[in-house]
Specification:
By secondary structure, this protein is mainly alpha-helical. It is built from three helices and no strands.
Length: 47
């Protein structure tokens, strides 16, 4: 397990941290799902 994952697992034991972490997960999933906007801009200019 990576150092970050171990650290995260320790932090998630704290109820307040876990609550905040879970609140941002949807937003983080959306950010990861959106392709790099520079790639989209290049695609649009070539069309």
């Amino acid at each position: 397990m990576s150092g970050f994952r171990e650290f995260l697992n320790e932090q998630l034991q704290d109820d307040e941290f876990r609550k905040q972490w879970e609140m941002i997960q949807l937003e983080m999933d959306l950010i990861r799902a959106v392709p790099d906007t520079s790639l989209l801009q290049d695609f649009d200019t070539k069309e």
